[in-house]
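Schema walk-through. Below, the input block comes first and the output block second. Nothing else is stored per chain. Lengths vary across the set, and this one has 331 residues.
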Amino acid sequence: MRQAGRYLPEYRELRAQAGDFLTLAGTPELACRVTLQPVERFGLDAAIIFSDILTIPHAMGLGLHFLPGEGPCFEHPVRDHHAIAALTPPDPETDLGYVMAALRLTRQELAGRIPLIGFAGSPWTLATYMVEGGSSKDFARIKAMVYDRPADAHALLEVLTRATTAYLNAQIAAGAQAVQIFDTWGGVLEPDHFRAFSRDYIARIIDGLTRTVDGRRVPVIVFTKNGGQWLEWLAETGCDALGLDWTTDPAEARRRVGDRVALQGNLDPCVLYARPTTVQSEVHRVCDRFGDEPGHVFNLGHGVHPAIDPEHVAALVAAVHERASGPGQPR
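--- output ---
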């Protein structure tokens, strides 16, 4: 969950050298260095490739840029049938080759120490940015499309599903040993629309992924922010693990999904504003809620905030490792 980022001074220094975020993420050597920064500082159990969920629409030529204080914006939003019909899935090895190069280079640098995780945004999440033109508080344009012109919404999600499937398969071929689908905005939908416009497309992506490489299974993780009410539906997508945000009770989640999937999460990132001793006690509280059943990947319920003290992240990692190495708690 956003292992690297502005909370790390070494990241801020490298981003200043690069000049802007897109140059940093789009230069394989720099993306590799950023990926390794939190691994080298904290001794994490896995690395997450440094990239962005909006790489696919960026490669589609929508004019992605980042405005200070506003986040991602597109110069050419996709808001009508003609704009949707003009979209084609980018070629992962040419249009998005910088991501594959960063994955290959990072695998080489990691040298088998820990696994490397790739990721992509869900079709619904990508569609929200593409239709809204950037971040949104009410998702008015994309929801109007869903209600008034569902065929257009499905056409957009169809091309994004094909693009995301190819993109994740290319990441797996380039060395990603697990992949995660971030359904960041699935939780803004009402139940029927969540199934039709988000969950079903995620399931199609998973069905089309390469699941075994050199005799080893490639796990697929699905995370829907504010999606705790739909865990059963998400467990039916064919994923191996479900990410939980901090609004979902882990014990209740385990009761609902049984042993069908592993669970990943779910410490509130704001805990990291507290003193290290509090961080440690909250780590143990979260682990207690998950219980002793296998299949828990400790994680934040969302990303590390920019103002977090790195020493508090270090306290979290130390507490997780201490807990994982205790009696009856295999790593």
